[in-house]
Design brief:
Blueprint (H helix, E strand, L loop, with lengths): L1 H14 L5 E2 H8 L3 H13 L4 E4 L4 E4 L12 H14 L4 E2 L2 H14 L2 H13 L10 E2 H13 L3 E6 L5 E14 L2 E8 L4 E6 L3 E4 L16 H12 L3 E7 L3 H5 L8 E4 L5 E7 L2 H9 L5 E2 L4 H19 L5
Parallel strand pairs: 4-5
Antiparallel strand pairs: 1-3, 2-3, 6-7, 6-10, 7-8, 8-9, 11-13, 11-14, 12-13
Helix pairs in contact: 1-3, 2-3, 4-5, 4-6, 10-11
Length: about 325
């Protein structure tokens, strides 16, 4: 009986690799006959595992079922899931904290001692710094993601940064998470242009609208488009500065969403960026710790001169070391 149980677990592990297996391949892997494989497949089905028979290949594949059957995880997968659950329980998505902690408790209860020790060591070494970020209900994310997947128009009430509320009619493309904020990238039907929306500021109107044909995104993908929007296009003050270092070197210094780099040659690049004030632009540029050339706007030039004067005054002060 123990031999049969071990073989079933081995068979289940093979099927969970998300590929199709022929009966002959499984028989070889398990060192049994094809008849034994068929019997073991029926045992798994009896336990609730949706093992599908493939037409024309005499093969098998694990499909989706009506309920969630137990899963087999290897050591690395178990630790990865545990860390993910621990992180999710304190993340920016609301409504799943309790479920994450319950799942984590179940997982930790059955982990072998060697994995519990690894996970404990990892968690003790991890330091989580709390940061203010808007939290989004999981139901809202799921509703938006479903509209993206089904390619159905999504209408929602949206509150912009000034507090003004409007109704937006969109063709949703993607959900993107940037710096602890969730964004919807979508085609705005009324404005006939691509837009990005903070998910914490929108309230979907259900049901969704008619199906649509997806449009090509500027930049090729949602992440590139949103990076450009966040770095320059959506800010009241914008500039393009020449940095006297190659783009590959500068890219390592940029925070996500800070700006968009454009290579020029092996000694310089352009940085497109935006901010809420010329002073903020000046700080962002000088924080890169590299030589640069700025041609405008005039307010940015004034802000850089003012910053230079303050730094010089601090160095020349009588009590400065």
């Amino acid at each position: 009986m123990s031999e049969t149980s071990a073989r079933l677990l081995r068979l289940l592990s093979l099927l969970q690799t998300h590929r199709a297996w022929s009966g002959a391949e499984l028989a070889t892997k398990l060192d049994v006959t094809a008849r034994t494989v068929r019997r073991d497949i029926e045992r798994l089905r009896g336990l609730g595992y949706p093992v599908q028979a493939l037409q024309g290949t005499a093969g098998y594949r694990l499909g989706a079922g009506a309920s969630m059957p137990p899963l087999l995880l290897d050591d690395e997968e178990a630790v990865a899931v545990a860390v993910g659950l621990r992180t999710t329980s304190g993340g920016t998505v609301t409504g799943i904290e309790d479920a994450s902690l319950r799942a984590l408790a179940k997982l930790e209860q059955v982990l072998p001692s060697r994995l519990r020790h690894r996970l404990s060591t990892l968690q003790q070494s991890m330091v989580r710094v709390a940061a203010e970020a808007p939290r989004v209900p999981s139901e809202r994310l799921l509703a938006i993601a479903d509209a993206c997947r089904r390619q159905e128009r999504l209408r929602f009430d949206y509150t912009d940064h000034t507090g003004r509320i409007s109704v937006r009619d969109t063709e949703p493309d993607s959900l993107v998470n940037v710096s602890r904020h969730w964004y919807l990238v979508a085609w705005d039907v009324d404005r006939a242009d691509w837009r990005s929306f903070r998910v914490d500021r929108l309230r979907p109107r259900i049901p969704t609208g008619p199906r649509f044909t997806p449009r090509p995104l500027p930049g090729g993908d949602a992440a590139t488009y949103l990076s450009r929007r966040l770095s320059s296009a959506s800010w009241p003050w914008r500039t393009v500065v020449t940095l006297h270092r190659p783009a590959t070197e500068i890219a390592e210094r940029l925070w996500p969403g800070t700006g968009v780099l454009e290579p020029v040659d092996d000694k310089s690049c352009l940085l497109h960026l935006g901010a809420d004030s010329p002073a903020s632009l000046a700080w962002m540029i000088t924080a890169l710790d590299t030589d640069f050339t700025v041609t405008g706007p005039p307010e940015l030039v004034t802000a850089l001169r003012s910053l230079s004067d303050r730094c010089r005054a601090a160095i020349d002060a009588p009590d400065a070391d």
